[in-house]
Amino acid sequence: MRFVRKLLICLALAAWPALAAQAAPGSDSAKAARLPACMPYVGESMRFNVGWEFINAGVAEMRVERARDGYRVDTRARSNKLLDIFHKVRDRLISEGICRGDRLQSTLFDVTQNEGHYHARKTVRFLWKKNKVVRTKGGKTETFDVPAGHLNALDAFFAVRKMKLKPGDVVSVPLFDSRKRYMVEVRVLGRKRLRAPWGERVRCIVIEPKLKTKGIFASKGKVKIWLTDDARHIPLKMVAQIKFGHIVARLARYERRGG
User: Fold this and answer.
1) In the chain, what are the domain boundaries?
2) What is the mean pLDDT of residues 43-62?
3) pLDDT digits (tens, 9 = 90+) for 133-144
4) I need a surface site. Which of 48, 83, 93, 119 has the fewest CB within 10 A?
5) Other CB atoms closer than 10 Å to residue 66's CB: what's the count?
6) Least confidently predicted of 8-12, 80-84, 139-143, 243-247
7) What's the predicted TM-score (pTM) here?
8) Cα–Cα nearest to 125, from 104, 150, 102, 160
9) Spatial separation of the C-alpha atoms in residues 253 and 117, rounded to whole Å
10) How buried is residue 37: exposed, middle or buried, by Cβ count under 10 Å (0-12/13-18/19+)?
11) How far is CA 10 from CA 5, 76, 217, 240, in A?
């Protein structure tokens, strides 16, 4: 039962300049001017309710913060009290990166998994100046040839959010995930209106990432993400098809503070 973690990031790949005119409370141009050129989302805090079919499974939370040399995305997933009885989930993912001009460059992807009796830690360091990636898990370290510019899965999500997206578009982002590097393809399927946590119904664009790797982002079927149809592209809903049904994550709370 790893669905809380999987849908976490549908926050996954999905999808990534300015801040939206139509966004949730807290966005203003004065604050935006102080943010890094490549990461206008510093100060965001999002909370998702995650469920499987009609069962409430738990929550996932994401915060985008400043780091010493760039930015840091801290994402956590936990099962609720009922599911804790059967399969307790307490996962954490940390992504760090820097700005190279107006582009993101991943420097770290750190995953801690605590799921029932399963406990694991994986650290991926992007040594972009050397065109290398170093991956450590279970005491084993591997080095891969990966050109600068490749992103981890969370950073790829923000890279797509920054893009101008319209129905019919197909965009690509260079990704390193699960020991593989490739261009992840994201299709923009169409538009639909959804109710946002701040009360109003807003127009969204629906995107579908084409994932080629297994592991934390594995899904037996399609992944779809609903983003607000504005410059912020706030994720309101995410659906992943799995072997038995669907996992659904809905944005329950969104806050935007000065970076």
Assistant:
1) 3-256
2) 89
3) 999 999 999 999
4) 119
5) 14
6) 8-12
7) 0.81
8) 150
9) 31
10) exposed
11) 9, 13, 7, 7
Query: Are 19 and 228 spatial neighbours (Cβ–Cβ below 8 Å)?
Result: no
Share of the chain above pLDDT 90, in %: 61
Q: Over 70: is that where the pLDDT of 174 sits?
A: yes
Q: What six digits make up the tokens of 209?
A: 């990432």
Q: Which two tokens stand for residue 22?
A: 């139509």
- Distance from C-alpha of 93 to C-alpha of 22, rounded to nearest angstrom: 29
